[in-house]
Design goal:
- By secondary structure, this protein is mainly alpha-helical.
- The protein has a single domain, classed as Arc Repressor Mutant, subunit A.
- About 65% of the residues lie in helices and about 5% in strands.
- The chain has a three-stranded antiparallel sheet.
- The N terminus is likely disordered.
Length: about 190
């Protein structure tokens, strides 16, 4: 459930930025910063109508991540910090540390080391509390400062989302969400082959 929520939130942002920015966001593969980028979002594929490609998805993800990273930097939060803060803040409950670390590592498609490092840093900053702190697998939860940071970033995300896609048609957003969900599921299935 948590993995699906994390994936859904990431997809929502990527899809919506893609729709809002089109192909101008990050250029095309092989282009250099000195070469003018096309702002033509009616690109055709082999003479046919415009089509969604992996490049489009990649450009949207890159552009979205750059905007999001700027917000995170303004709040002194790394991406992995945010993943943990968001997980704990959304649930609003204490959670078993090893369960959280394992789940988030799988969702991020990484090993547990960077997630554990981020968690250690959040504990050091007094944003996450470990109870009892002497065990190998404590329960973890947000401190009041961690809850404040969670809400600060959430508010920033809402403002960015409104600027990027607040005026887009809900049916377009729903279609993009559905299509990217299918693509993500298929890509994840490919990784297990």
């Amino acid at each position: 459930m948590q993995k699906r929520r994390l994936m859904r939130e990431t997809l929502n942002v990527a899809v919506l930025v893609s729709l809002a920015l089109g192909s101008v966001a990050c250029g095309s593969a092989g282009s250099s910063p000195d070469v003018p980028r096309s702002t033509d979002t009616t690109r055709t594929q082999q003479g046919g109508p415009a089509s969604l490609t992996g490049q489009d998805i990649g450009q949207a993800a890159t552009a979205t991540r750059a905007v999001f990273n700027r917000l995170l930097a303004e709040t002194g939060t790394t991406f992995n910090d945010w993943v943990i803060l968001n997980d704990l803040g959304t649930s609003g409950q204490k959670a078993n540390q090893n369960d959280v670390v394992g789940r988030l590592a799988r969702a991020l498609q990484t090993d547990e080391t960077p997630v554990r490092a981020a968690l250690t840093e959040l504990v050091r900053q007094s944003l996450v509390n470990q109870t009892p702190s002497a065990t190998n697998n404590p329960e973890i939860s947000l401190t009041p400062a961690g809850t404040s940071r969670f809400h600060q970033v959430q508010e920033g995300i809402k403002q960015i989302a409104q600027r990027l896609y607040g005026d887009l048609a809900p049916e377009d957003l729903a279609t993009a969400h559905r299509v990217l969900g299918i693509v993500t599921e298929r890509a994840n299935a490919e990784l297990t082959r």
